[in-house]
From TrEMBL:
Its main location: membrane. Pfam families: HAMP, HATPase_c, HisKA, RisS_PPD. The chain crosses the membrane at residues 156-177. InterPro entries: 2C_sensor_his_kinase, HAMP_dom, HATPase_C_sf, HATPase_dom, His_kinase_dom, HisK_dim/P_dom, HisK_dim/P_sf, RisS_PPD. It is a multi-pass membrane protein. Keywords: ATP-binding, Cell inner membrane, Cell membrane, Kinase, Membrane, Nucleotide-binding, Phosphoprotein, Transferase, Transmembrane, Transmembrane helix, Two-component regulatory system. It catalyses: ATP + protein L-histidine = ADP + protein N-phospho-L-histidine. It is found in: Cell inner membrane. This is histidine kinase. One of its GO terms (molecular function) is ATP binding. Residues 236-440 form the Histidine kinase domain. Its EC number is 2.7.13.3. Residues 175-228 form the HAMP domain.
Length: 440
C-alpha cells in the first residue's frame, strides 16, 4: 500500500492564516501605540527631569561652598532624587540606547545645554543620571529610570489575553467558513456510496453556498433517476435475454445429435448467462448490513467452490479469530470475483493457478492480501484494471467473461468503506490488497 500524501485540513489552513493575520495585527498595533506613546512620554519626562535639575542647580548656586554639602545631604534624604559631586574618574554608560531614551536625552540637552551628560549608570550604580555644572563644579543628579521607560504593556498578560482571543476567534471564523464545505464533502461521500437521497440546505443566507447546494441537489436527483432507470433497464434486459436463452438451451439438448457440438453450444449459453449475471452484479445497488464477519471462515467458504486442483489451488493463512466490519454477501462477492480472476489469468500455460490469501494489520485496519503467481499486469495498465470491460493484455481479449470482475470488486469494496489497491507482487503475479476496518 502506498503511503498517503500529507494533506493540510482546510479548517486548520484557514485557522492558521487567520491566526497569523490577526496576531500580526495585534503586534503591529502594539508597536504603533508604543511609537505614539514614546514621544509624548519623552517630552513629559524631560520637562520633569529638567525641572529637578534646574531646581537643584538653583539651590546649589545660591549657597556657598560650605553650605552646599548640607544642601546635598538634604536632597539625598529624598527617595526619588539624589545629588552627588561628579569626580573626574567617574565611569558612566550612555543612556540613549533605545528610541525613547534618545528622545529623552535630546530633549534634556535642548533644555539644559549641549554639555549635559545623560547616563544609565555611574560607577556601576544604575539609574537615570544627569550631569550638570554649577560655577566650576560638576554634579550628578540621580533618579530612578523605571517610571520613565516605555513598555509594550504594563502587564504581559494583556498580550497573552489578546493572543488567546485571536486564536479563539480564528478557530470560530474558520469553522463558520468551512462548515458548508464540510457538509458538501459529507454529502458527496454519501453520493459516492450510492445514497442519492442526500440533500443540502437550500435556504442558507450565503448566496454562493446556496447556489452550490441547489446545483448539488439537482445533480443528486438526476443521478438517482439515472440509477433507477439503469436498474429497471438492466432488469428488463436480463429478463428478456434469459427467456430465449433458456429455450435455446432446451432446443440444443433435444435436437443436436453431435455430443461435442451440443456440449460447446451449452457452454456458450452458460457463458452468456454468466455475463448477464456480471452485468447485474455491477449495476445492482444491494442494501448493505455491516457487521463483524469472521474473515477466515468467509474466505474458506468462498474458496470451496474452487477446490479443483487441476485449475486452481488456494492457500489461506488467516487467524480464525480475525473479524472485520463488512456485509457478508458483498464481501463474498468480492472474494468470488478475485478467485475467478486468478483462475482465468493467474497462472502459466498448462499450470493450475496458485492463490495465496494472507493479511497484515495496520492500527484499526486489516489489509487482506490475495496474490496469484501468474504473469502479472504491465505497470502502465494497472490503473485501468478496475475500468469496466477492460482487460489487462491482448491475450485476455479471447478469454471468457465480461471484463467486469475487478470493476465489481472495486465498487463493492468502496461500498464496504474500504480501499482497493492492485499491484504486481515481488517475484511475479498480481497482488490485490483490500483495506477493511477491523472489528473488535
Amino acid at each position: 500500500m502506498s503511503r498517503p500524501q500529507l494533506a493540510l485540513n482546510l479548517f486548520w489552513r484557514t485557522f492558521a492564516l487567520l491566526a497569523l493575520l490577526l496576531t500580526g495585527g495585534v503586534l503591529a498595533w502594539q508597536q504603533t501605540f508604543k511609537a505614539l506613546e514614546a514621544e509624548p512620554r519623552a517630552l513629559e519626562a524631560a520637562q520633569q527631569l529638567a525641572g529637578l535639575v534646574n531646581l537643584s542647580r538653583a539651590a546649589l548656586a545660591n549657597t556657598d561652598a560650605i553650605n552646599r554639602v548640607a544642601v546635598i545631604s538634604s536632597i539625598a534624604r529624598s527617595e526619588m532624587v539624589k545629588v552627588r559631586v561628579a569626580e573626574g574618574h567617574d565611569r558612566w554608560q550612555p543612556y540613549d540606547m533605545n528610541p525613547f531614551a534618545k528622545e529623552l536625552a535630546a530633549e534634556l540637552r535642548g533644555r539644559l545645554g549641549p554639555d549635559t551628560v545623560v547616563a544609565s549608570s555611574v560607577n556601576g550604580e544604575t539609574g537615570l543620571w544627569v550631569r550638570f555644572a554649577v560655577d566650576q563644579d560638576a554634579y550628578w543628579l540621580q533618579t530612578s529610570a523605571s517610571p520613565l521607560t516605555v513598555t509594550s504593556f504594563n502587564n504581559w498578560w494583556w498580550i497573552a489575553i489578546s493572543l488567546a482571543a485571536t486564536a479563539l476567534g480564528s478557530a470560530l471564523i474558520a469553522r463558520l467558513i468551512n462548515q458548508p464545505l464540510r457538509e458538501l464533502s459529507i454529502a458527496a461521500g454519501r453520493i459516492r456510496e450510492g445514497e442519492y437521497d442526500s440533500r443540502l440546505d437550500e435556504r442558507t443566507l450565503t448566496s454562493e453556498i446556496r447556489e452550490v447546494n441547489m446545483g448539488f441537489n439537482r445533480m443528486a436527483r438526476e443521478l438517482a433517476k439515472m440509477e433507477e432507470d439503469r436498474t429497471v433497464m438492466l432488469a428488463g434486459i436480463s429478463h428478456d435475454l434469459r427467456t430465449p436463452l433458456a429455450r435455446l438451451r432446451l432446443e440444443v439438448e433435444m435436437s443436436v445429435s453431435d455430443e461435442q457440438a451440443r456440449q460447446f453450444m451449452v457452454q456458450d449459453i452458460d457463458q452468456l448467462d454468466a455475463i448477464i449475471n456480471k452485468f447485474m452484479d455491477y449495476a445492482r445497488p444491494s442494501e448493505l448490513q455491516l457487521q463483524p464477519v469472521p474473515l477466515a471462515e468467509l474466505v474458506e467458504r468462498e474458496a470451496q467452490g474452487f477446490r479443483d486442483p487441476t485449475q486452481i489451488r488456494i492457500q489461506i493463512r488467516l487467524p480464525s479469530e480475525l473479524k472485520v466490519w463488512a456485509d457478508e454477501t458483498e464481501l463474498g462477492r468480492v472474494l468470488l470475483n478475485l478467485f475467478e480472476n486468478a483462475r482465468r489469468y493467474g497462472h502459466g500455460p498448462g499450470e493450475p493457478a496458485l492463490v495465496e490469501v494472507g493479511h497484515t494489520q495496520n492500527g484499526p485496519w486489516v489489509l487482506l492480501q490475495v496474490r496469484d503467481h501468474g504473469p502479472g499486469v504491465p505497470p502502465d495498465k494497472l490503473a485501468r484494471l478496475t475500468t469496466p470491460f477492460f482487460r489487462g493484455d491482448a491475450a485476455r481479449t479471447a478469454a471468457t467473461g465480461a471484463g467486469l470482475g475487478l470493476a465489481i470488486v472495486e465498487k463493492s469494496v468502496q461500498r464496504l468503506g474500504g480501499q482497493l489497491e492492485l499491484g504486481n507482487a515481488e517475484g511475479g503475479g498480481l497482488l490485490t490488497v483490500i483495506r477493511l476496518q477491523r472489528a473488535a
